[in-house]
């Protein structure tokens, strides 16, 4: 069966599929376009083709589609993504290609806020994950917890899993400076083959894109991180695997890998 979609104008075919077929890699998209499993107005088109108002995208149902883990009709978090919640906090496994902050574009903050309102609470963003980074994301559900988290977040133990090009790195500490502030990240290789290294990163400080910048600093950008020099044009292979924090007692939250990284779970 062929599915029919009205195209979103002024974005590329590739961007459209990133939003609507989140599991589809760039290589798979190219292949489906080449063999006409996906067409634009019934004709072949390259992934970089810019869509116009009135364009129709046709997709054969053999092209696997991973539905958004959020229920967009209810605009609230699907409970399958919730790792933990009580009267003080909500912890979720943030999916790929969803903003963690902001009050628009179906961000996880908007989703969390709407979820909290159903239990007569309010969600306060405590930290953030990049749009293309998946994993553990914590929200406070009251002002007091938000204040306590803001005071203690520098003590949280965060672990990220990343896929890097094959290299001989074993373990170490990266220290760089940005805006006169020292940025520190610990790392260790937990598995490798002749193509890739699976690396655990533990940021000691917190700065936007810190792990991505530090991986590039080592000379091995995260797979899919073309912004920082990756040669692999694919999804970003970076996941917040675990966070340990203290709120009266110690909590550890761990998030399973997203679909495009599931294969590597056996090595963690």
From TrEMBL:
Would I find tRNA processing among this entry's keywords?
no
SUPFAM superfamilies noted in UniProt: Pseudouridine synthase
Q: What is the lineage of its organism?
A: Bacteria, Pseudomonadati, Pseudomonadota, Alphaproteobacteria, Holosporales
Which PANTHER family does the record match to this protein? Answer: 21S RRNA PSEUDOURIDINE(2819) SYNTHASE, MITOCHONDRIAL RNA PSEUDOURIDINE SYNTHASE
Question: Which GO BP terms apply?
Answer: enzyme-directed rRNA pseudouridine synthesis
GO molecular function terms listed in the Swiss-Prot or TrEMBL record: catalytic activity, acting on RNA; pseudouridine synthase activity; RNA binding
Q: Give the matching InterPro entries.
A: PsdUridine_synth_cat_dom_sf (IPR020103), PsdUridine_synth_RluA-like_CS (IPR006224), PsdUridine_synth_RsuA/RluA (IPR006145), RluA_PseudoU_synthase (IPR050188)
Alphabetical UniProt keywords: Isomerase
Task: Give the domain of life.
Answer: Bacteria
Q: Which CDD domains match?
A: PseudoU_synth_RluA_like
Per UniProt, residues of the Pseudouridine synthase RsuA/RluA-like domain are 88-216
This chain belongs to the protein called RluA family pseudouridine synthase
């Amino acid at each position: 069966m062929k599915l029919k979609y009205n195209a979103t104008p002024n974005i590329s075919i590739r961007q459209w599929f990133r939003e609507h077929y989140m599991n589809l890699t760039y290589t798979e998209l190219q292949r489906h376009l080449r063999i006409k499993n996906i067409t634009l107005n019934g004709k072949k088109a390259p992934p970089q083709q810019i869509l116009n108002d009135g364009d129709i995208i046709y997709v054969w149902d053999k092209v696997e589609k991973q539905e958004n883990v959020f229920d967009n009709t209810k605009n609230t978090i699907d409970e399958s993504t919730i790792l933990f919640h009580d009267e003080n906090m909500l912890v979720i496994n943030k999916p790929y290609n969803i903003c963690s902050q902001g009050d628009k574009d179906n961000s996880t903050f908007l989703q969390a806020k709407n979820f909290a309102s159903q239990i007569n609470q309010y969600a306060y963003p405590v930290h953030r994950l990049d749009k293309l980074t998946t994993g553990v994301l914590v929200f406070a559900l009251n002002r007091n917890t938000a204040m306590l988290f803001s005071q203690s977040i520098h003590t949280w133990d965060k672990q990220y899993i990343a896929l890097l090009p094959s290299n001989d790195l074993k373990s170490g500490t990266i220290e760089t400076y940005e805006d006169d502030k020292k940025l520190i990240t610990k790392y260790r290789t937990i598995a490798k083959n002749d193509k890739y290294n699976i690396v655990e990163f533990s940021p000691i400080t917190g700065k936007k894109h810190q792990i991505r910048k530090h991986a590039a600093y080592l000379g091995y950008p995260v797979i899919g991180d073309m912004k920082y020099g990756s040669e692999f044009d694919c999804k970003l292979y970076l996941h917040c695997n675990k966070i340990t924090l203290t709120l009266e007692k110690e909590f550890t939250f761990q998030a399973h890998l997203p679909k495009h990284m599931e294969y590597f779970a056996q090595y963690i």
